[in-house]
């Protein structure tokens, strides 16, 4: 499904199966945060298509924090890519849950800025906020590099799409 006219607004399109997997992880982890990495591809200018939300456990996660550690995340990504038959699929960003109905925090924005500076390419962030025992809402930001070593963080529309 393609949105007819989105202007220049960044967008994150999450496949339904990926969204439901992330939703289940977020609900199961509550009242703690959980998270991991986003796999998919970039389409056009500022559109991230998310094929999978891969969990990267953080045994120290709490009510208000989750830290995605590089080594376990790289291992999860490598395992996923080794079994994927799609040549264009790769790392597009990060995701984590908020066990309360909260959008991305200033800490999330700061972390995304650091990821963009390190990666030197666009990075998507999806926050799955637990709204109730059975409902999760997705918020998203896209960080883009800008010269010389800064990042621009923009809110992004979230669209759920069929696989």
UniProtKB/TrEMBL annotation:
Keywords attached to this entry: Hydrolase, Metal-binding, Metalloprotease, Protease, Zinc
Domain JAB: 24-130
Gene3D superfamilies: Cytidine Deaminase, domain 2
Pfam families tied to this protein: Prok-JAB (PF14464)
Superkingdom of the organism of origin: Bacteria
InterPro entries found in the cross-reference section: JAB_dom_prok (IPR028090)
GO biological process: proteolysis
Family annotation (SUPFAM superfamilies): JAB1/MPN domain
GO MF term list: metal ion binding; metallopeptidase activity
Protein name per UniProt: Integrative and conjugative element protein (TIGR02256 family)
